[in-house]
Fold:
Amino acid sequence: MNDNNPVIHTDIEPGVISTQMIKDALREQGPKGEAGRLMEEESQDIQNTPSKQLRLEFLNILQIDHLWMMTGLTKLKLSNNIIEKIENLDELVNLVELDLSFNRITVIENLGNLVNLEILTLFENSIEEVQNLDSQTKLEIFSIGHNKISNPDCVLYLRKFESLKVLNMAGNPCCYGINFRGRISVFIPQLIYYEYKVIMKEERESIRAVFGRELEILEENEKKERIEKEKKEACDQELKFHKEGFVEFLDKDQLFYELFQNDAEGKASFLTESEAELIHEGFKEHMGKVTHALFNMGMEQLKLRNEEERQFQDTVNRTKKESLNDSRSIVEGCLERKEFIYHDTNKCFESIEKQGVTDDNFAYYTELMRNNTEDIHNLYFDVWIALMKNELTLYEQMEELITTFERNLADMINVFLESAQAYFTQIREQESTFMELITDHLIRFQTQASIRNDSFSDFPLEFRNMMVDKESVHSAMAASHDIHLLVIDGREDLMTSRIRQWHSQLCSKLMNDEIKRNRAAITEINYFLDYQRAEFEGFYSKYNDEEETILDTLSEKSINQSGQFE
Structure:
C-alpha cells in the first residue's frame, strides 16, 4: 500500500531526525515577529523550548531520533515519511496525540511509556496485528485504516480500551467478507464512531442477536478473568501492606514450607509411617503459632511507625505554614512601604513638572529624593535580613524535627527487631525439638526395617541412602537441620537489613529534600529582592527627556551650591 508513497521533497535524502531538523521546524511553526525572536533567544537548547507541538511531515524521515530532548511535547505529527519502526519515543511521557500515518511501519511497538496517549493515528502503514497497546488505557481515538490486518479478532483486543470512542479500520483485509461494522459495534460497546460515522443504538441492538452466543461466552470469560484479576490485585495489595511491616509471608505457614523447599532429606522423612506425619504436623502447628505472633507484632509496630510518621508530617506542615505566614507578612509590609515611597516620589516629580526647580524648593526636592532612595535601599536590606532570618529559623526547626523523627524511628525499629529476634529464637528451638523427634523416629524405623530386611527399592534415592544405617540417618538429619537454620537465619537477616535500609533511605531523603527546599527558598528570596531593586533602578528611566533634564538640573544646582560653600 504505502511502499509506493511519493517522496514529496525529492531533494531530501532519506535520513534520521536531527536536532537541526527539529530547530528548523520549531522556528517555522512557532510564533512570528518579535515573539518568535524572543522565544528563540530564550530556548537556544531544544530541551528548553516551550513548544508543546511539533510537525515533521513530508521530510523523507527514515528513523526517529533526538525527540527524547522534548519531554514536554503533547502533540507529535510524523506523517507522510518513510519511517519503518516506532522507536526512541520513550521520554515523551506527556504525549497526548501521535500521528504516524502514511509511513512504512510493520509492527506496533515501543509505546509502553506513552501512558497519556489519547489519539493514535497509524493510517496507511503495513501493520499486520493490533498489539502492544496495553499501556494506552486513555486511548480515545484510534485510526489504523489501510494496513494489513487480517484477523477479525483484533476487535476483542480493542474491547478492553474503556475510553475508546472513535475507531477507523477501513481498508484492512479483516473488514471484508463479514459484517465487520456490526461486529465492531457489538464487541466494543463503548465505541461511538466507526469510520467517522455514529453507531446508532438501534444498529447495535439489531446486530447483537447475530453475535449473541459468541458475545455471551466472551462476557462469561471476561467475568472470570475480572474476578481472578481482582483477587490477584487484592493479594498484591495485601502483600504490599505486609512488606511495609517487613513481615511478608509470615502470616500463615509459608516459612514452614520454605524450610523443606530445598531439603530432599527432610522431604524423604515424610515417607515413614504415620508417626512422622504427626511429628511434622506438630512442628508445623507450633511454628505457625510463633510466626503468626511475629506477624501480628510486626503489623502492630507498623501502625505505631505510621502514627509517628503522621505526627511528624503534621508538625512539619504546621511549622512550614507558620513560617510561610511570617514570610508573607514581611513581603506584604515591604510592598506596602514600597508603594508609599513610590507614591511620594511620583508626587515629587509631578511638583517639579508643575513648579520647576527654584532656589526656594531645590533643597526640599533634593533631600526628599535622597531620603526616598535611602529608604527604599534600607527597606530592601531589612526585608532581606528578615526573610533570611525566617528561613534560617525554619531550616533549623526542620533539621531538629528530622533528627528527632530519625531517633524515634530508630528506637521503634530496635524494639521491633528485639521482639523479632526473640520469636526467631523460639522458631530455632522448635526446629531443634522437631529434629530430635524425627531423628529418633527414623532411627527406630531404620532398626525395625533392618530386622525385617525391608526393601526400599520403590522409594526415592534420598530415602534409600538415609536408611542404610543409623549413621546415615544422623548424617541426613544433620544436613536437613543445617538447611533449616540457613532458611531461618536468612529470613531474620532479610528482615533486619530491609528495615534498616528503609530507615536510612527515608531519613536521608527527608534531609536531602529539606536541603533542596532551603536552597530553593534562598534563591527565591534573592530573586525577589533583585527584582525589586532592578524595578527601583528602572523607576526613574520611565520618565522622558524632560524629567531627565529636571534631574540634571537638580544635580547641577547641587554641584554649584557645593562650589559656593567651598
